[in-house]
Specification:
It contains 4 helices and 11 strands, in the order βββββββββββαααα. It has 216 residues and is an alpha+beta fold. The strands form 2 sheets. The protein has a 6-stranded antiparallel sheet, with no helix packed on it. Helix 1 crosses helix 2. It starts with a strand and ends in a 32-residue tail after the last helix.
Length: 216
């Protein structure tokens, strides 16, 4: 088989990677579908750039993506690397050998300057990723509009400007790519949820309501 490919460990199936981007996950719309329940619907993607191949964790799962056992956000791959998507594992092959450090990760550019409203839009976009639930997809333009009480058209304009600022190319999963960049850069952080509990102070006593007594 010519070009990069992966071999799924559980099944032994060998799958060639697409010329540019190959998506992988548990959902119906991905290029490589894994059935393990620990894999998100859209978990990660393989990206080819000339002779190089790297894997990008899309931030859609708390289980994450690992290369040779190490958690990664975006990582250049070498021939023979083992990539784990949750509990599912695949070995990469067909990558030309070259003298470069396999530990290298693609460095992200510094975060662009953002307006207050753009920060609000990004916070709303990434809110599902920062919840305690498994992250399935970032918020839609409609959901962001409802959250911020603005029009959907205004949200779409903000998103277009944000795509340009973060250099998110056109194509599928554009909102997901943006959300992944934002979370990886630490621009949006989870807010801890404090559960509501009844008082546990042993000195706290319930005082019954005062009732009127009939004079004896």
């Amino acid at each position: 088989m010519e070009g990069p490919f992966i071999r799924i460990e559980d099944s032994g199936e060998v799958i060639a990677l697409r010329p540019e981007i190959t998506t992988i996950g548990r959902g119906r719309g991905v290029d490589i579908r894994l059935t393990d329940p620990s894999v998100s619907r859209l978990h990660a993607e393989f990206v080819r750039r000339g002779p190089y191949l790297y894997v990008v964790d899309l931030g859609l799962s708390r289980n994450g993506t690992r290369v040779n056992g190490r958690p990664i956000a975006r990582r250049v791959l070498d021939d023979g690397d083992v990539v784990s998507f949750g509990a599912a594992r695949a070995r990469v092959g067909g990558i030309p050998r070259e003298d470069f450090t396999p530990e290298v990760e693609l460095r992200r550019a510094a975060a662009p300057e953002l307006t207050r409203r753009e920060v609000d839009v990004l916070t709303s976009l990434c809110r599902p990723a920062l919840s305690d639930e498994a992250f399935v997809a970032p918020a839609t333009a409609r959901e962001i509009a409802d959250d911020l009480v603005v029009t959907e058209a205004a949200v779409k304009q903000h998103l277009l400007r944000l795509y340009q600022k973060f250099r998110i190319p056109e194509g599928t999963n554009r909102r997901t790519r943006l959300a992944n960049e934002v979370v990886a850069l630490g621009l949006v952080r989870p807010t801890p949820v404090i559960p509501t509990q009844r008082p546990t102070d042993p000195t706290h006593h319930h005082t019954p309501p005062t009732s009127s007594r009939r004079a004896s």
